[in-house]
Write a structure and sequence with these properties.
By secondary structure, this protein is of the alpha/beta class. Helix content is about 35%, strand content about 25%. Strands 1, 2, 3, 6, 14, 15 and 16 form a 7-stranded mixed beta sheet that branches. A 7-stranded mixed beta sheet has the order 19-20-18-17-23-24-25, sandwiched between helices. A 3-stranded antiparallel beta sheet has the order 8-7-9. The radius of gyration is 22 Å and the shape is globular. The termini are far apart.
Length: about 475
Amino acid sequence: MANKEGYLIVDIGTGNARVAVAGTDGELWSIKRENVHYETDANYEESIYFNPEDLWRQILKLAKEALAEAPEVTIKAITATSQREGIVIIDPSGKSLLGMPNIDHRGRNWEKDLLDKDLVYNLSGRYPTSLFSAFKLVGVREVYPEMYAQIDKFMSISDWIQYQFSGVPCYEHSQASETLLYDVEHKQWSAPLAALFNISTSIFPPLYQATDILGTIKPEIAHELGINPEAKIVVGGGDTQLAIRSMEPSANDVVIVSGTTTPIIKIVGQYEKDEDQRTWTSRHIDENNFILEANAGVTGLNYQRLKEIFYPNEGYEVIEKELEDATYSQCVASLGSLIADEDEPLTKGGFIFNAPVSHQLTRGSFVFAILWDIACSIYENYKFLDAVSPHTESYIWACGGGVESRKLRQFIANLFGKSIKIRDTFRQASVLGGVFVCNDALGVANKTPELLEEVFPKDHEEFEKLYQEWKNARKTFKQVAH
């Protein structure tokens, strides 16, 4: 590995922090991960936050561990990607005050005070809810006015990480799309939206394009990590957009990004909106394209947590083997996913199975039901996306840890009646998207990812009937929730 050149890539998901060292050809030499530590704030009904200084120490620790496995690599560039909608606020001295992840809903109580929701949708490309960054700022202002008064800048988590490495504040366009303060069509901060939320534009950092170079690494950070003091800090972007980049889809392709949540996206060349305001439109990480999206909400997180309960010491291959013995009749699940035409996600969910408990019910039955729930949620949201921007291709791309499950890929193919394709970049798609971004910034040719597998649909009509059963189960849980 001596004398090889590579990149340091930081990826902050909803659940965990990852730091990777990769070659310019996309070879992952090392990757280290830990769970992100969150705390709750009792001053809100539903607020989760993190200490930015703790996260930064965690990133440096993981970086040292990852670099230790690739000691002869010259780090040419560093970039970051992160969960969208999450933000960090800093004061005029550059001190990080508070981190608010995408799952922080401290602004929910003030959603009702926003009067012109149509204007917000038309400019920002998404129906306004407390998921998005502007409401997090409103929540801070209303409960912690002293802290709010200290805010000099706010940044997405990935832009804040790049700030920590470089000292240069910025906001990348795909991340700015998630704030409700950005005019997606015209690619600029929006004074009308800022006025609507009563947020001063003075706290908005300059906008940067993904692949822009912010500068070189701070000398003290280069020294602490023991890396090249000339390493460039490259602007990354939203984790969904970087994952898509590593798949290299064609125009009009649909990509499913199966992580903690599951965005279903289509790359489009113009600003497209849904007259019923069910879809989101964002900037992609390139100069001109947009991302049209429907999002199935919390999906992969359910799978991960059930694995921890039922299969704490076994790998996914054990689960896949046991799934072969499970059937649709044993158990049906509905577990908190989001459907594009619903006002809010399912807040009460569970499993429905026959009583008394059947001897055929196994731990595999519950995982089977979760994967089927994820597949149905994805399919339901895809239909809204297709209604706004028709998708005629016979295949769909998929990436992210969720589609590690071949059973899930088969479920999706069967429901859609389309084949599901994955590339060799699918497992670490957002990290490898960081490699593409660094290569583009430094003028290095990217290695084209290869098709790894294509799963073809089976029994589409039969699966449509099973899908209707799932819809009925979801209605049952929605009634319980209310």
